[in-house]
Amino acid sequence: MGDETMSDLTERRLQTVRDHMALECVGDWDGVIATFEHPRYEMYGSGAVFDGEEDVRGYFAASRTPFPDQSNEIIALAHGGDTVLVEFWLMGTHLGPLKLPGKTIEPTGKAFRVRMAASFEFAPGSDKIICERPYFDQLAVPRALGLM
């Protein structure tokens, strides 16, 4: 780290999260993977864990099947310790089959916009992500689509 100040590291981490989320919006999965030291998602709502590049790429493919235009809009960012917190709007259009527990919902063409939060954990002294933890209500998107 040398003579680098913590504020420099903080700004690089905030920029990594901005870049990560922007790359998700355009489906640049190689770029998203490059923001990680080790790709890992821990889904707070469902308890699912996607660990390693293969798992994470599978998650990207599965989550974009029902919502190929899925995107996000950052509302706020905060940094503390080795974590960046982000609040954001998650948006998309139901254009593919949506798998829900016990059933699959065919495309409705309806759009959704739900408020979410996520934490991004960084390796100490690094601007590379070691884990993203989205926090969300699993029923928020089906409710926003009028499916519940």
UniProtKB/TrEMBL annotation:
Describe the location of the SnoaL-like domain by residue ranges: 19-125
Q: Provide one Gene Ontology biological process annotation.
A: polyketide metabolic process
Q: What's the domain of life for this entry?
A: Bacteria
Pfam families in UniProt:
SnoaL_2
InterPro entries (UniProt xref)? Cyclase_SnoaL-like, NTF2-like_dom_sf, SnoaL-like
What name appears for this protein in its UniProt entry? Conserved protein
Which species is the source of this protein? Tepidicaulis marinus
Please name the taxonomic classification of the source.
Answer: Bacteria, Pseudomonadati, Pseudomonadota, Alphaproteobacteria, Hyphomicrobiales
